[in-house]
Write a structure and sequence with these properties.
Number of strands: 10
Largest sheet: 5 strands, parallel
Modified residues (4-aspartylphosphate): 55
Distance between the termini: 49 Å
Helix content: 55-70%
Mean pLDDT: 84
Radius of gyration: 30 Å
Protein name: Stage 0 sporulation protein A homolog
Domain HTH araC/xylS-type: 423-521
Keywords: Cytoplasm, DNA-binding, Phosphoprotein, Transcription, Transcription regulation, Two-component regulatory system
Structural class: alpha/beta
Number of helices: 23
Shape: flat
Domain Response regulatory: 3-120
Length: 529
């Protein structure tokens, strides 16, 4: 296969080109990437690629100078320039230096790009037949996955065989400050929905490229895709420092980039540090032990394995829970009905099912103290249990408990100030918001004239009947936007809006955003508190 080097200072352009092309179709694979001309020149000398895709305007060394240096070596390397419309004067100079084509960034289609690559491939085939040149058989990512990850998981191949294979691809794992970090992308399924990438291939390419670039700057790490949302980072050093400082900086940068580019958070499971290569598999197993408790690891958190990691995790969960609940609940209730049972359970076993039961039992008590009468209790219990069962982690479970408890408090306050007719109307709205409802229907249900019903509704709740109904429907639609992949028009109809346009205007009135803007900005948001 022909080796390809991409030199482009814009990360998203590099990622887009790499992910959008079926390189195997042209008997090619991307051996490396560079964000500036100087780095590209160093990587060119290291890899001796058969094809270079280079931008013209880059920091430290522009594309023209890079092309000159490559041509000065006498190498027949194929060169394709990546240009913008305002680069054509420079592109002409590049063509004079012997480039074989150009890709017009942002406007060129994938089919047009492939046509340029096909021409380059045909030229390379002629050179290969003439010189009998040999090329690398596989992608470096495949080598890491099939050799390194296989060793860590199954101990096949052996460590010595694994290291030998990696050295063939100019990859050396130094025996100092060895640390493994398992990165898990939070909100991964929503990310797949947003980018319509059900198999995760585009996401995988993008994340591997981004993480590799960050690791390359520190010069002390490798990354390999494990499965789905999981990526393994292996850190090492030429000299012994016994410091996590460099690693912390790398993880922090990865978090920042993933948040800025994808609006997602990763959480990390980090092993101990060792100076012994033979303990690589032990380090990986430490990461997996932490990962087994994924339900209890907060999104965006960094979790270190040590002899007291279970105690530390337990205290973190209890501290977060206490801080969250005491902000609006009586501390006596929080401690007696929730924190004490939680602490006893977590010290014994991290069980999501057991924790669900504790939240459920606490909610039943709170419902009895704050909530509706016996006739309505079933509906509240059913809704809460359904919400709990859908939670993917402890953080979501705590969030649902808070949300439902606050609804009970609000209802309790309303019941203290509302008349029987208004309470009856509110119950009707909450049970029937998904269908068409008229003022006449509701006022007739409670035995009042429409005008009188409207006046007491506004007096007791501080808002009009229609305003209250629309706000309630919008709140329900916000949940669907956050937690489902339903289209906006489907959500509109599911929440009682007969017209998608009216739904959009009403949504923007209450939230300041369109439904699609809200979905993009909020669906992946995760609190770091």
């Amino acid at each position: 296969m022909y080796k390809v080097l991409i030199a482009e200072d814009e990360m998203l352009v590099r990622t887009g080109i790499r992910a959008s092309i079926d390189w195997e179709k042209f008997n090619m694979y991307v051996v490396d990437e560079a964000a500036d001309g100087q780095t590209a020149w160093e990587l060119y000398r290291k890899h001796q690629p058969d094809l270079v895709l280079t931008d013209i305007k880059m920091p430290f060394m522009d594309g023209i100078e890079l092309i000159r240096k490559i041509r000065d070596t006498g190498s027949p390397t194929e060169i394709i320039i990546l240009s913008c419309l305002d680069d054509f004067s420079l592109a002409r100079e590049a063509i004079r230096l012997g480039v074989s084509g150009y890709i017009l960034k942002l406007t060129m289609t994938t089919e047009e790009m492939e046509e340029v690559l096909e021409n380059a491939c045909q030229t390379l085939d002629k050179v290969t037949k003439t010189k009998g040149s040999s090329v690398a058989p596989v992608n470096l990512y495949d080598v890491l996955e099939h050799s390194l990850l296989s060793h860590l998981t199954y101990n096949v191949p052996s460590l010595s065989e694994c290291l030998s294979t990696l050295r063939e691809y100019s990859v050396t794992i130094h025996p100092h400050d060895l640390v493994t970090a398992l990165m898990v992308v939070d909100q991964y399924e929503q990310l797949q929905d947003l980018y319509q990438d059900s198999h995760g291939q585009l996401i995988q390419f993008s994340l591997l490229n981004i993480i590799n670039e960050i690791l390359a700057k520190s010069g002390s790490g490798l990354v390999v895709h494990v499965s789905g949302s999981r990526y393994l980072l292996l850190f090492h050093n030429e000299k012994e420092t016994r410091s996590f400082h460099l690693i912390s900086g790398v993880l922090s940068e990865i978090m920042t980039v993933l948040k800025n580019y994808f609006n997602v958070t990763p959480h990390f499971c980090i092993s101990e540090m060792t100076q012994d290569l033979s303990r690589l598999r032990v380090l990986y197993q430490q990461c997996l032990l932490l990962d087994e408790q994924e339900f209890f690891l907060f999104p965006g958190s960094v979790n270190h394995y040590d002899s007291s990691w279970k105690t530390s995790l337990c205290q973190t969960l209890l501290t977060r829970t206490r801080h969250t609940l005491n902000a609006f609940m009586d501390p006596g209730f929080t401690s007696g009905f929730l924190l004490q049972p939680l602490e006893e359970q977590l010290k014994k076993e991290f069980s999501s099912k057991a924790v669900l039961n504790i939240f459920y039992d606490s909610y039943i008590v709170y419902l009895h103290n704050q909530g509706p009468g016996d006739g309505d209790s079933y509906l509240w219990v059913r809704d809460f249990l359904q919400a709990l069962s859908a939670c993917k982690n402890y953080y979501e479970m705590l969030e649902q408990f808070v949300a439902h408890a606050q609804k009970l408090e609000k209802l309790s306050r309303e019941r203290m100030s509302c008349s029987r007719e208004i309470l009856q109307a509110l119950q009707f709205l909450q049970n029937n918001y998904h269908r068409q409802i008229t003022l006449n229907e509701v006022s007739g249900l409670v035995g009042l004239s429409p005008n009188y019903f409207s006046s007491i509704f506004k007096k007791e709740l501080g808002t009009s009947f229609l305003e209250y109904l629309n706000r309630y429907r919008i709140e329900k639609s916000m949940k669907l936007l956050q937690n489902t992949s339903m289209k906006s028009y489907e959500i509109a109809y599911a929440c009682g809006f007969s017209d998608e346009g009216y739904y959009g205007k009403t949504f923007k009135k209450f939230t300041g955003k369109t439904p699609n803007e809200y979905k993009k900005s909020c669906v992946f948001t995760t609190s770091n508190e």
